[in-house]
């Protein structure tokens, strides 16, 4: 199995992707690191600890960044993930699990150094923890096996941003962190809105999952009610787009996606802040702001049907 650190801001779809990782026989989940995003760092960490308790997840939870590198933290999107970040299902007053002694970025550094060449990081929130790890110990770059990121939007299949016309939430939440991550020469695959918005769990799918998968299926149904209403009322979608689990799907089966290589930059100021732009390496450009940056892969197409079947079978 692949050793995975899951960097996350739970979050409804983050919780769904955590179960996808936890129940996959091909994954050895070695750590969960939290970051602000879908809620404050206190709440995303509380939610990760609750999930650890509720599903008896062995991996430790290390608490991460409560603010972006440069920008001011924004108000949590409670209209998407609920007041408690998990679709407003009732949560217990007392959480048994405790956070790890190390902060998330130091947990990442230590785990990578202890397992050279073996750790895959699945990052489905703001990339602040990763950027802090990179700043503190750039020597980890050649030691990381792969980073799979849910974030960004590159304009394929008619999909654009979800916070502004060009910016996706995880990137605009900390564009400086994302740009630093893309500047480093570790192997990165970006699973952006171009493919995550193509993979939709319909209400009928979620009902079938609930009825077939015991406690986990019921839990996914319960936490997704609020989220589904948000998508129906704002986009007219009959179901939920599967953002964070799409990154896990790439990890489990890269043949589900078509990718394109080339250096990526993130707009860090102005009206297009948070936009992700890849210069395709399939053609030559004159020297520009992408020159001398490493190539990274972005997903430009995916097999949603096969992915949704993999999710269903795994849960
Ligand atoms: C991303 O933003 C968050 O709301 C989701 O958890 C996902 O990681 C989608 O833009
Ligand atoms: Ca997320």
From TrEMBL:
Name the UniProt record assigns to this protein: Inosine-uridine nucleoside N-ribohydrolase
Keywords carried by this UniProt record: Glycosidase, Hydrolase
GO biological processes: purine nucleoside catabolic process
Source species: Kaistia hirudinis
Hydrolase listed as a keyword: yes
InterPro entries: Inosine/uridine_hydrolase_dom, IUNH, Ribo_hydro-like
Residues annotated as domain Inosine/uridine-preferring nucleoside hydrolase: 4-308
GO cellular component: cytosol
GO molecular function: purine nucleosidase activity
